[in-house]
Design a protein that fits this description.
The structure holds two protein chains of two kinds.
Chain A lengths: L5 H6 L4 H10 L5 E6 L3 E6 L7 E6 L4 E4 L9 H12 L5 E2 L4 H24 L4 H32 L9 H13 L3 H13 L6 H20 L6 H11 L5 H5 L4 E15 L2 E10 L5 E9 L14 E9 L7 E12 L8 H14 L6 E13 L2 E5 L3 E4 L8 H6 L4 E7 L4 E8 L2 E4 L10
Parallel strand pairs in A: 1-5, 8-10
Antiparallel strand pairs in A: 1-2, 2-3, 3-4, 6-7, 6-9, 7-8, 9-10, 11-12, 11-14, 12-13, 14-15, 15-16
Helix pairs in contact in A: 2-3, 5-6, 5-8, 6-7, 7-8
Chain B lengths: L2 H11 L13 H8 L5 H19 L3 E2 L17 H12 L3 H13 L9 H10 L4 H16 L16 H4 L2 H14 L1 H11 L5 H10 L9 H7 L5 H14 L3 H13 E4 L5 E4 L26 H13 L1 H8 L3 H10 L3 H14 L3 H8 L4 H11 L5 H15 L5 H11 L4 H9 L1 H10 L4 H7 L8 H10 L6 H23 L1
Antiparallel strand pairs in B: 2-3
Helix pairs in contact in B: 1-3, 4-5, 5-7, 5-27, 6-7, 9-10, 9-11, 11-13, 12-13, 13-14, 14-15, 15-18, 17-18, 19-20, 20-22, 21-23, 22-25, 25-27, 26-27
The chains are: A alpha+beta, B mainly alpha.
Chain lengths: 444, 497
Amino acid sequence: MTRWTTEQVLQLAPDAASARAAKPLASAAKWQLRETDGNALWGLCKGSGSNPYQTRVDLAEPAFKCSCPSRKFPCKHALALMLLHAEQPAGFGQNTPLPWVQEWLDSRAERASRQAARAEKTSAPDPQAQAKRAARRESRVEQGVAELQRWLGDRMREGLAELPGKSYDFWTTLAARMVDAQAPGLAGRVNGLASLVGRGEDWSGRCLSALGEMHLITRAWSRLDAQPEDLQAEIRGLLGEPRSREAVLAGEPVIDCWAVLAASLTEDGSLFTQRVWLRGMGSGRFALLLNFAHQTQRASLPAGYLPPRMLAGSLYFYPGVAPLRALAGELEFAGELPELPGQTVLAATTDYREALRRQPLLGIWPMTLAGVRVSHRERRFWLSDDAHQLPVHPAFRDWRLLALSGGEPVNIFGLWDGETLFPRGVLADGRYMALMEGGDGRLG
Amino acid sequence: MDAWDELLRQSLLGTARVAEDLPALPEALDGLLRAVELPAEERLLHAAILLDRYRRLGSLPAPAPSEISTAPPEHLPATSDELAALLRGLLEEDEPLLLAELLRGMAAIPCLAPPDTLPALLDLITQRAELRGPALACGGERLRWLAHQHREWSALVNGAGDDPWLTGDTATRVALLRDGRQRDPAAARERLAAGFGQEAPRERLAFLESLETGLSPADIAFLESCLADRSQPVRLLATRYLVRLGGNPTADTVLGAVAGMMSIHGKLRRQLQIQLPESFEKDWSRFGLREKPGGGEHMGQRAFWLTQWVGLVGPTRLAGLLEVDTGRLETLVGRSDFAKELTASLEESAVVLADTGYADWRLVGAKPEAFINRFPRLGMVLPPSRRDEMLREFLHRQLPRLEPTALLTLVTAVGELSSATTREVVAQFPALCAVLAKHPWQGRSLAQLAHHLAPGEATALEAHCLAQAGLAGVNEFWRRYERRCRIQQALARRVVC
């Protein structure tokens, strides 16, 4: 049976108000019925009406259903039932699901099999139509790349000093044209560049590096066929070419026990993006799961990726030179992280340089450092082992890192951008704690 | 200027303005650059990305520093997982009263807050100075070490060797003084006396107020010296303490002066004879008396002088001077020409002079409205157990007629109610809810009440709250009370461990 802790349940809450509202309901007196069959929970909660609310929770995903009128998902009743189960599991009767629970579980199973059947049906596309679409796409991308190359040339002719004076439309128009050219990856870089200009002391240096990268991408695209296959896949990924889930899932799975080291949820306009960083405890491989949902479909994002859970099963990596992005296969809860193996500062940065050598457009690089000591000086944090030190990203402001370490050696998971590390989790006193979100805004 | 700086300079100016050769790059890169034919602007970008990657590939991490600060070892034991979870939860929510209760409980054990909560604790005490003491106690050595590394937090804690009496804020110093007066009144007084004259007037008054803890004849010499203080409120308070202690020249002078102004005449119908002072003597200001009444004091000047003298003596001593009991004094004052002024002065002085006899007499048998008005002030003069008992008796008779806000005012004067008084409130909770139903905007007062009831009545209260769940404030009341019970249980379990 999947066991959820109180902290993990509270992280499922759609907002702070829901978490607050759930706590007073997590009391035995509020529930006329509390039962479980090991995989699901169900209960009857007294509400303001005459009939109690019927609440069901499928612990595996998890999934929720409640008869209350709340539009929040999960509602406070579902959260409260899970909280009560986390704190007082003995208070739940062991039973087979009641009819109104079984009906819901059956409908979920039926929906899942319908979706699988639909996926099978749609996975046999018309090859001719596919080829036509691919050719049209290639043509659009080529035009977009050519337009970007001209734009880059114009910037270098004009000079970077002119950039701070450019209007908001200057950037959004180009980004929109890249989206129209079916190169959303380039649009993202244009937006990223806009946010750099004029900000901070070395904005021009960072700007020049960013422009150089865009130049490299456009040149690599122009000579795509001359690149090795794995690098071709990376370059297509950098442009934002959608890659077929089915093709990825048809690849070779990597089976391991995956530790969830960090998870974040960001909202950009109408889109939620969930980023989950995993590390294979056997293979030592890192993986990044990316899930997206429209703002009205937030509840559709998987809810089980909570540090420091371990998930046993398979991941399917996207093709590339040093692939990080993966899709989840079958994953099962396998306890909590017992330890966090790591490297010295030199070894970790050497691995980064090796990956950069093979893929010059590498973005964020995950690493775990062992036995590093945290210090704070010159208005930022630093991580040092016996021989070397790394600067922490200036945007990192989570003082829990220093509080937890106390200046003693600890193991840390973080995201390296080539110059600074953004710590995302620390193992101290035998306990792994996730730290503030950040550092993964720009991905290779 | 190195190659990158030169590339940057050319990029900033633009190739349209600057038609210069690219700077010399490392040999390996030069070869790569010469291998491609590109327009000037593209060559510039090409050189930039090549150099950027070359530097990244070639750069090694900086050497580690020779010294890194580590937190000193702790002397206190860690807290329990249960308390740690409660603390984390309360730090995330905005629950200052519950947090205060938990931190004070943990400081009393004492045990350490888990390290991940320390930054939140430090942020908390920058906003809530009253939690500084318990938070510092629970934070241990690591909290101080952490604070010293953060610009805003470092002002909150004292470095090793710093004396909080010298560097702390007023609230901290008053708390230190009260604490010192409980343990060693003479030493605390000596410490205060050492720098008393250099303190600001407001601080001098606050420190003098804390001398009430452990007030004894040994303080007379210091109090006499305060009669020369530049601040009138300080001189006034010192005089009152001297009169309270008795057996000193100041007390004798004051009592003698009042005895000259008031006497009792008549046999059958006794009356208070008042001789108003004719003029304001210069040396009266030594006792903190003022010549002119303030803006809000609407009375004649001579009556003002009289009420000030009476205020120095207090009701019980005045009754003693006149050789009557408190009840008779009240009657005589009530029949006098200055009834209102004298009554107010006597009541005010009873609080300052801790006249428990008068306070008790004035409250017992008072009409309900009068009790509600008087208890928050006069009740503070009574010993805690008597205060609680008096309130319990009042609630037994009057609770069904009390609005929640009035009840909260009374209960706040006591602080945490005893188990017996809590049971009284719990027993009449349905009646309280019936009143709340007529005044639903007072739901917040009901919720605040949860912080004053003794834990241990959860079972009975839960049933009442469930029955009244629809009323405003009841759910919040229950939520807070239940959390308090959990906090107290977790603290008790931690103590046992």
